[in-house]
Design a protein that fits this description.
This is FAD-dependent oxidoreductase. GO terms for molecular function: 2 iron, 2 sulfur cluster binding; metal ion binding; monooxygenase activity; oxidoreductase activity, acting on paired donors, with incorporation or reduction of molecular oxygen. One of its GO terms (cellular component) is cytoplasm. With 491 residues, this protein is an alpha+beta fold. The chain has three domains: 187 residues, FAD/NAD(P)-binding domain (3-Layer(bba) Sandwich), CATH 3.50.50.60; 144 residues, D-Amino Acid Oxidase, subunit A, domain 2 (D-Amino Acid Oxidase, Chain A, domain 2, 2-Layer Sandwich), CATH 3.30.9.10; 79 residues, Rieske Iron-sulfur Protein (3-layer Sandwich), CATH 2.102.10.10. Helices cover 26% and strands 30% of the residues. The strands form four sheets. Strands 3, 4, 5, 6, 11, 12, 13, 14 and 15 form a nine-stranded mixed β-sheet that branches. Strands 1, 2, 7, 8, 9, 10, 16 and 17 form an eight-stranded mixed β-sheet that branches. Strands 21-22-23-24 form a four-stranded antiparallel β-sheet, with no helix packed on it. Helix 2 packs parallel to helix 8, helix 3 packs across helix 4 and helix 4 crosses helix 8.
Length: 491
């Protein structure tokens, strides 16, 4: 399950945190948001440290298709319906600034970027209404899109909206360059250090990690979903997993970027450096499917059907967070407190949104906020319109919380699971997650340490996933990602 990007990545390892240090700003997370924010601040003379739980690129950025596009599936029409064209136009302006910053950075460091057209396409005639609506919304927001009927691709395409001169790149090459530039500008990057808590002391923010404490004037939480519960962001986003695969294709492959307007999502691009085709999609909410592997197989079957002879090279997955209000949340962790800032909810479009978020976060800290920043504000006034959607999301969470515990009433089987399998059992009063991976059977707590959800076995990735807010754990209980910051206890 290693991504194409990580397979050959040459990124130097960095030391873990030495406690007791003092910084102007501490950034949690070494993906696009965290590293870009750190660089912007370091360039302005701030003493910055980036703290990463694993390695640079271990999160979503290096697991994505790395499309850098202002045409984002059907996002424009969705935002316009919820918030209106004026708000959509400001969202586009934010993404355009992020787009321009990212490409300028790459150009200044000779990073390979391919400029290609992006398409949102209809897989069948019924999806054409969404394609037309996306065309109208993007044009209303000032994007020079056009409608096309005939595109030379081997898979079903009944029409598409196109935006020329978008971009694609290698995300690990980009992150490696970002990290190196942060250090060149005087910033520090610490790996293998998981942040676990925050507290305020003498006007400073103290960050508690597994290796000790450091403090700063302010903290930027760029961890995909905020790992601190203050602000309740876990209840304002839905965690989603999607799958990607890289193939060698014997015949011609699409030269541009494609994503379907309807479900199941099909997302395609070419990576010319290795001459491979990337196919993604078949997503679902984390921990809520009987078989994640069935989604992977659906993607592989689709590729084999439309690209006969395609040879699978890599398969992997990514986790994204979809905001209930449809716009990203960028700003204070809690209203009125600027010391701790967050960014989340990019709905799978993290390259332009992530760079834009970094511009907004750095601007809040230095007093140079972009004009569009309020549109992405974490506590914008328009969020009242999202209350019904938020209520639905949290009703679903409550249902999974209750049904997970109710299912334990009959979970009294105690045999060893077959290789690659896991299940939740009841050992007395204790829900226990039992799995067998690589011949080793492990028993750990089945209760997510975040908010008490009962975990679900992910048969595609051999992990324990929480259906409440998307925390994920290794078979031995180690935290992979999500709002949880502590491992599962052994049984």
């Amino acid at each position: 399950m290693t991504s194409l990007w990580l397979n050959n990545a040459e990124v130097p390892a960095r030391l873990r945190l030495t406690p007791g240090s003092h910084f102007d700003t501490v950034v949690l997370g070494a993906g696009i948001v965290g590293l870009t924010t750190a660089l912007l601040l370091a360039e302005r003379g701030r003493e910055v440290a980036v703290i990463e739980a694993k390695r640079v690129g271990a999160g979503t950025t290096a697991a994505s298709t790395a499309k850098v596009s202002l045409l984002q599936g059907t996002r424009a029409q969705t935002i316009a319906r919820r918030h209106g064209i004026a708000t959509l136009s400001r969202y586009v302006a934010a993404n355009l600034d992020g787009f321009d910053w990212l490409l300028d950075f790459c150009a200044g460091r000779d990073l390979a970027v391919e400029r290609v057209a992006a398409y949102t396409y209809a897989q069948n005639e019924s999806e054409m209404s969404a394609v037309r609506a996306e065309f109208e919304a993007t044009r209303s927001a000032g994007l020079p899109t056009d409608l096309v009927d005939d595109v030379d691709v081997p898979f079903p395409l009944h029409g598409a909206v196109r935006l020329r001169e978008q971009a694609q790149l290698n995300p690990m090459a980009f992150l490696a360059a970002l990290a190196a530039e942060v250090e060149t500008q005087g910033g520090s990057i610490f790996e293998s250090t998981r942040a676990q808590r925050l507290r305020h002391h003498d006007g400073r923010v103290v960050i508690g990690t597994e290796h000790g404490e450091v403090d700063a004037n302010n903290v930027v939480v760029a961890t995909g979903t905020p790992i601190f519960d203050r602000g309740g962001y876990f209840a304002r986003v839905t965690a989603q997993r999607s799958y990607l695969a890289a193939f060698k294709v014997p015949g011609p492959m699409p030269e541009e970027m494609y994503i379907s307007a309807g479900q199941p999502i099909r997302s395609l691009r070419r990576y010319p450096a290795d001459d491979v085709l990337l196919v993604g999609g078949s997503g679902h909410e984390v921990g809520r499917e009987d078989s994640a592997e069935a989604h992977v197989q659906d993607l592989l079957d689709w590729t084999g059907r439309w690209f006969p002879g395609a040879e699978l090279l890599h398969r992997w997955s990514a986790q994204d967070y979809h905001p209930v209000g449809e716009l990203p949340y960028v700003g204070p962790l809690v209203p009125g407190r600027e010391e701790v800032l967050v960014a989340t909810g990019f709905a799978k479009w993290g390259f332009t949104n992530g760079a834009a978020a970094a511009l907004a976060l750095a601007g809040r800290i230095t007093g140079d906020t972009p004009k569009w920043a309020d549109t992405l504000s974490a506590w914008r006034l328009g969020e009242v319109a999202s209350l019904p959607a938020g209520a639905r999301v949290n009703a679903t969470v409550a249902r999974y919380l209750s049904t997970g515990w109710l299912h334990l009433l009959g979970a009294d089987e105690h045999s060893i699971p077959p290789e690659g399998c896991g299940r939740v059992e009841r050992h007395g009063l204790h829900p226990t997650a039992v799995s067998t991976v690589d011949g080793v059977t492990t028993e750990i707590s089945a209760i997510c340490p975040h908010l008490g959800g009962i975990l679900h076995w992910n048969d595609a990735e051999r992990t324990w996933d929480c259906p409440l807010h998307g925390s994920r754990f290794e078979p031995d209980g180690a935290v992979i990602e999500g709002p949880a910051t502590h491992p599962l206890s052994p049984r």
